[in-house]
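Appendix B. One record, verbatim.
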Amino acid sequence: MTTEKQGAGSNPRVLDALRQVVDPELGINIVDLGLVYDSDVRDGLVHVRMTMTTPACPMEELLMEMVHSAILRELPEARSVDVDLVWDPAWNPEMMSPAAKAQLGRT
């Protein structure tokens, strides 16, 4: 999955909300990190399909809480948030946006 395809079918308002969720270890938002694969809003239900940088990510619980909070805060029509944590495709550094790569010194 390339950065251009990642989140291509996603709801732009959800992505904007998720840009406020910053990985505490890397200091980069989860959208630019390439962790958000897809999002949708239907009848007040927000569905997000995302991953972590690794299945053993120590920040998983915190990031999930931050995702829920950001969406409920930024999308007033959201009544509930469903996050589908997936491992396929596995995340890799090529999924990061150019800005995230530059911030981490990867060009």
